[in-house]
Amino acid sequence: MAEAGSSGIFVVQRHQARHLHYDLRLEMDGVLKSWAVPKEPPLEPGVKRLAVEVEDHPLEYANFEGVIPEGMYGAGRVEIWDRGTYQLKHRSMDKIEFSLNGEKMRGDYVLIRFKRNKNWLLIKRKGNKSDE
Question: Model-level pTM?
Fold first, then answer.
């Protein structure tokens, strides 16, 4: 398990499949841990978004842009919406705190797991220097 203080890459892919969503991917444990975010990820402090945990992806997938053909899982257009690096601040089974350094997403974020399912809340934290 990735430990606090570790860093890695992150990517957010805009995925026009059956429904438009954004895939947040954090490099952890040698893979891209992934969450599907139905609405655009939060850029303003205090904004909360649903984030549904999905299967891990290989690190190479961080650079993927293109069209997944009809008939394949996830068929549709994939574009990189944002990317950069992140620093892990805390990670437990129910909470992941991290700081993003991307082109759009900058500052402190937290993922908080709902009880009893794979749904999480993605929240942009208030009080970041980058918010001023």
Answer: 0.90
* Overall domain count for the chain: 1
Contact present, 22 and 37 (Cβ < 8 Å): yes
Q: Which residues of 4-16 are buried (b: 16+ CB within 10 A; e: fewer)?
A: eeeebbbbbbbbe
Q: What gap in Å lies between CA 107 and CA 73, rounded to an integer?
A: 33
**Is 40 inside a domain boundary?**
yes
The boundaries of the domain holding residue 20 are: 7-131
In a domain, residue 66? The reply is yes
Residue type (1 letter), 58: P
- Cα four-point dihedral sign 10, 54, 94, 30: negative
Residue 2 forms part of a structural domain: no
pLDDT tens digit sequence for 82-93: 999 999 999 999
